[in-house]
Design brief:
The structure holds 2 protein chains of 2 kinds. Chain A has one domain: MetI-like (MetI-like fold). Chain A contains 11 helices and 2 strands; from the N terminus they run ααββααααααααα. Chain A has a two-stranded antiparallel sheet. In chain A, helix 1 crosses helix 11 and helix 3 runs parallel beside helix 6. The longest helix of chain A has about 45 residues. By secondary structure, chain B is of the alpha/beta class. Chain B has a domain of about 180 residues: P-loop containing nucleotide triphosphate hydrolases (Rossmann fold, 3-Layer(aba) Sandwich), CATH 3.40.50.300. Helices cover about 30% and strands about 25% of the residues of chain B. In chain B, helix 3 runs parallel beside helix 6, helix 4 packs across helix 6 and helix 6 packs parallel to helix 7. The chains are: A mainly alpha, B alpha/beta. The interface between A and B is medium-sized, with 23 and 33 residues. The complex binds adenosine-5'-diphosphate and magnesium ion. Magnesium ion binds next to helix 1 of chain B.
Chain lengths: ~290, ~290
């Protein structure tokens, strides 16, 4: 009797303890996020204006805005995704649907991607500089930067997409095959729409990593802050701009904060937009013809 | 594909069921059995595990053939071999010969997509795609070259009527098929298979995941399909096999491999089985 009572008390305290820890963890995470946001808002909100968004930077970024830098950032991102997405999603489809889990080829590809995922971004920068800028002769350009980022986000895109496709139950593949559907049609009309949310999540992770990248771009897309005339021009990415303002430019704190605020807002917008896009696409593929 | 145009369907049903069937319902019955699937010495292995050992069996046109036997005796494997679904299982090796309509299904020139159009399959667990009801039917049709919207709609309506689902879903064809009840989902799967205008339907325990009422509805539907389609059905429900089947095949595991013990008219198997194992299984003594 006594023993049971003691046990009950133990359970009671354990329960409470776990609860307290869970709440603490949640609170900490929220607090960190809020702290960053408030800090950014306090430091940068006053500096934000429409002109800040469209003007090119002057006086090393102390004056003027970030118009040219936003354009460069978006171009670099588009190049990176344009190169990485088709490659990554076909690779994922190959790995998940056409290659058995135990095949040599699959193991080699997966292992390479894992190694690639662990490589620090500065190494990607050096590689991009040596390969795209010098060997392929692209110089310091948005193209070099974008392609370097493409290599960098490839592992994330492939592994999330592969996981998404593998999570689709085999019963769908069997039923589709039993209805005489080819593997390609099953993949396009059935598996991809079902896996779309996971693909989108991977895409967002990739975008996040690409937009936040500084080191890999230093040696590839360069830090010229003029408005780029073409993809072969150098262009400074937003993250690099923030780094430069806060480290190298005395008196650049306010524009640095404002730029960081824009970067966060941009990520938020991309997230929301991508989610909506996927929802729409999925509905179109699943409900309508 | 064209013979599936909506014919003025005659209503067979009494109060109990609402299935409508085309005129072929009155088609050939089983007094003059013609083999449509001929299985000779079929052996089937998964890696080094033998699932079926030298099964020889004819399935007759227009009849319902029930496969009975304990779990693990290779009934599902037998069905999957007929429409070559076993191709999808990496380590599955098949020996022997299967002919459908006189053509060997494993020769180089036999087209697996065409085979699966001719031989439809319904699984134990209802497997509608997580798409709309309409798209569940149109997707496979498009795959088989039916692309005109009006034709797709006509076929969809016809098969949904055939399985008695039309009245239940006609005003919500664009909702997700997963919102249907289990029995409705299974009937949708049957409709989906029928939409391709198959000759043969393989059914792997189509009622065992359903509640008794839904199971009854599906069972009625299956017996209504007799004559129009050749049906091979796996069932653990012996009473059901007895009610709907014309022929029965009894499988049993011997030396860790599935064997066909006895095949014959349903009445014969259930009332005067030749084999002792069959008699014991039927009377519930074993398995
Ligand atoms: N994909 C598979 N891989 C390996 N063994 C399998 C596979 N599918 C079935 N088996 C084995 O083959 C035997 C027959 O299985 P199955 O055809 O599903 O029997 P039933 O449908 O009569 O229950 C069982 O022993 C089962 O374990
Ligand atoms: Mg089975």
């Amino acid at each position: 009797m006594l023993k049971i009572n003691a046990m009950r008390w133990r359970h009671f305290y354990l329960d409470r303890l776990v609860q307290v820890f869970v709440y603490l963890a949640v609170l900490t995470i929220c607090a960190v996020f809020l702290w960053i946001l408030i800090d950014l808002l306090r430091g940068g909100f006053a500096h934000l204006s429409w002109n800040f968004l469209i003007e090119s930077p002057r006086d090393a970024g102390r004056a003027g805005g970030i118009g040219s830098i936003l354009v460069s950032t978006i171009l670099i991102l588009l190049v990176a995704l344009g190169a990485a997405l088709p490659l990554a999603w076909t690779t994922a489809a190959l790995l998940a649907e056409y290659v058995s889990t135990t095949s040599k080829f699959g193991i080699v590809v997966r292992y390479s991607l894992q190694v690639l995922a662990g490589v620090p971004s500065i190494v990607f920068g050096l590689f991009g500089n040596a390969f795209f800028s010098i060997y392929l002769g692209l110089g310091f350009s948005i193209l070099s930067g974008g392609l370097t980022l493409a290599c960098m986000v490839l592992p994330i895109l492939v592994s999330t997409a592969e996981a998404g496709l593998r999570a689709v139950p085999d019963s769908y593949r069997l039923s589709a095959a039993a209805l005489g559907m080819t593997r390609a049609a099953t993949l396009i009309h059935l598996l991809l729409p079902i896996a779309a949310p996971t693909l989108a999540a991977g895409l967002l992770l990739g975008i996040g990593r690409a937009v936040a990248e500084t080191a890999a771009l230093l040696f590839t897309s360069g830090y010229v802050d003029r408005m780029p005339g073409s993809l072969l021009d150098s262009g400074r990415a937003l993250a690099l701009h923030i780094f430069d303002l806060s480290m190298n430019v005395p008196g650049g704190d306010a524009p640095a904060y404002a730029s960081a605020l824009v970067l966060v807002a941009m990520l938020l917008c991309i997230n929301i937009f991508a989610m909506k896009l996927v929802q729409n696409w999925q509905r179109r593929r699943t409900i309508l013809e | 594909m064209n013979s599936n145009k909506p014919v003025t369907a005659q209503v067979i049903s009494g109060e109990k069921s609402g299935f409508t069937l085309g005129p072929l319902q009155m088609g050939p019955v089983c007094c003059n059995p013609q083999p449509v699937i001929e299985v000779e010495n079929l052996s089937l292995r998964y890696g080094d595990k033998t699932a079926l050992d030298k099964v020889t069996l004819d399935i007759y046109r227009g009849c319902i053939t029930a496969l009975i036997g304990p779990s693990g005796c290779g009934k599902t494997s037998f069905l999957s071999a007929i429409n070559r679904l076993t191709d999808l299982i990496p380590n599955c090796v098949i020996g022997g010969r299967i002919r459908v309509d006189g053509l060997d299904i494993h020769t180089a020139e036999s087209n697996v997509q065409a085979l699966r159009q001719k031989v439809g399959m319904v699984f134990q667990k209802p497997t509608p795609f997580p798409l709309s009801i309409r798209r569940n039917l149109s997707l496979p049709l498009r795959e088989h070259g039916v692309t005109r919207r009006s034709e797709i709609d006509a076929i969809s309506e016809q098969v949904l009527r055939d399985v008695g689902l039309w009245d239940e879903v006609c005003d919500r064809l664009d909702t997700v098929a997963l919102s249907l009840s289990g029995g409705q989902q299974q009937r949708l799967c049957i409709a989906r298979a029928l939409a391709l205008n198959p000759q043969i339907l393989l059914m792997d325990e189509p009622c065992s995941a359903l509640d008794p009422i839904a199971s009854g509805v599906v069972e009625d539907l299956i017996s209504h399909l007799r004559g129009r389609y050749t049906i091979v059905i796996v069932t653990h429900n012996l009473a059901q096999a007895r009610r709907i089947a014309n022929y029965a095949a009894f499988f049993w595991v011997k030396e860790r491999a599935g064997h066909l013990v006895e095949f014959g008219r349903c009445q014969h198997i259930f009332e005067s089985p030749t084999h002792q194992l069959t008699a014991a299984y039927i009377s519930g003594a074993r398995g």
